[in-house]
Design goal:
This protein has 200 residues and is α+β, with helices and mostly antiparallel strands. The chain has nine helices and four strands, in the order E-H-E-H-H-H-H-H-H-H-E-E-H. The protein has a four-stranded mixed beta sheet with strand order 2-1-3-4, sandwiched between helices. The longest helix is centred in the N-terminal third of the chain and has 18 residues. It is globular. The protein starts with a strand and ends with a helix.
């Protein structure tokens, strides 16, 4: 049983739901496949205005909603991070590179998400990513070198194309079989689907 997790490393809601998603997958014996994608291309494909360019009222509501979820999940949160929005290409490719180097890339992903939303760090900066990789026990120099390779860039493009083809509309989206579940606030439905599959 596999849950494909489409997300952007700069996504606030991916940050808020990541630990809960991991815990849920572990409870139900599901494999999590993390696929960083180019959220700008996904938004363009579905005619969505990026959150940072939405109306002040919508942005204010988004921040209120995020704070409520952060309090519920006991997570630190800066609702207006200094480095957001940010070009997440290098971070996404660093994640893909790390996935090829270790069977457990989730701590690296979680640390990158937290860098934006809890620590006000710039994940477009090579030094920032190197520090995070080192703290997660990875070979930082190798991660960054591989992140810039043609193969990793092609994998990132493939993730994005796959997301668009499968009807993904935002981050995070969890896909089980042919069903998409968009938003970390839909984890209840993800769990129900995992239970249904386990009981089938």
């Amino acid at each position: 049983m596999c849950v494909i997790h489409y997300f952007s490393p700069m996504s606030g809601f991916a940050y808020l739901g990541f630990a809960a998603l991991r815990a849920m997958a572990a409870r139900h014996g599901a494999k999590l496949e993390h696929r960083p994608m180019d959220i700008a291309r996904v938004f363009a494909a579905v005619d969505t205005i990026a959150p940072a360019r939405q109306s002040p009222a919508r942005l204010a509501w988004r921040r209120t909603d995020m704070m409520r979820w952060a309090q519920r999940r006991a997570l630190p949160l800066n609702v207006a991070p200094k480095h957001w929005p940010v070009d997440a290409t290098l971070a996404s490719c660093a994640i893909i590179a790390a996935q090829a180097m270790t069977v457990e890339s989730a701590p690296f992903i979680e640390a990158i998400l937290a860098a934006v939303w809890a620590r006000d760090e710039d994940i477009a900066n090579e030094a920032t990513l190197a520090t995070i990789a080192h703290a997660c026990g990875l070979d930082a120099e190798r991660v960054l070198a591989n992140a810039m390779s043609d193969a990793v860039r092609a994998a990132y493009d493939g993730n994005t194309q796959s997301a668009i083809a499968q009807g993904v509309i935002g981050s995070p989206t969890m896909r089980i079989g042919d069903a998409n579940f968009f938003g970390q606030d839909r984890l209840e439905f993800v769990e129900a689907e995992l239970l249904r599959i386990n009981l089938a």
